[in-house]
Structure formats: structure tokens, C-alpha cells
Structure of Large ribosomal subunit protein uL15:
Amino acid sequence: MQLNDVHRGITKHRPRKRIGRGPGSGTGKTSGRGHKGHKSRSGYSRKPNFQGGAMPMFRRVPKRGFNNRWALTIFAVNVGKLNDAFNEGETVTLEALAAKNLAKGNFDELKVLGDGELTKKLTIQAHRFSKSAEEKISAAGGTAEKLAPKRTPDERVEALKSEK
């Protein structure tokens, strides 16, 4: 083999495949589509959920429930986690929780629950508090500031309608 033989047979642009040009071409008669069947016909397109004529999976599986478009997404956090994550005298908000990677995602409201021990004096701003959480916060010398809801249910419905 010589250096000038290296690129022999390799072309930059491969010639297009000429189908249906007789048996000698290798793609004559059926033009590479095989014999009969839906895929051999012109205008064929397979639906993404077509399963060969069998009952499709989405029809076999039972359906349950629904997704409530107007439901609030509430992030719940226990006072024990707040005790571990925050220092004495700090203010706890949904933004502060997100900054400390405790609340990941978008939430409408923050709810504080009473599991765990709270020994630090914290100012907690949340939309909802459980009774035990309020008791533990006040026992530790902190304050529980109740925030007004971000949006009323009617405002949420209007916002969703305006998105369309």
C-alpha cells in the first residue's frame, strides 16, 4: 500500500442511493421497503403510541386521581431542622431556607411543624404554624410571625387563566 492509496474509495460526498432502478442496483422492485405491510405503503407514518395493533399501554393501565391546577404548594419544615440550620437570633424565611438548600423548588407557602427540639431564639416568618411548633418557638424565646398568603385562590385562578 502506498500513501496515495490511503484515500482511494473514500469520497467526501457519498452518492445518493438510487432506489427502484432494477434488480442489479440492489434496491430494485420493493426499493428497500420489504414485502407488503403498512410500512411498505406510501404515506406511512407510525403513531408514537402504536403498539402493533395490541391494546396500547395507556389504555390498559387504570387511571386514578387528577392534578389540581389550583392547589397550593406548601413547604413543610420541622423546628428541629431549623434548630440545626440557623444560628441564634436569625430570621427564618422561605428565601433563607432556599439559600441554605433546605427548600428546593418553587413553593407558595411555608408551614412550620413541631417535630424535634428548638433551643435557639429564632424569628420565624411563615404562612402556617402547627400548635406544637408555635409552643416550641415561644418556649425557646423566639417569635412566630404569621405571613399573609401570597395569593388568594381567586388570584391563582386568574393567573392560570392569563397564562393561556
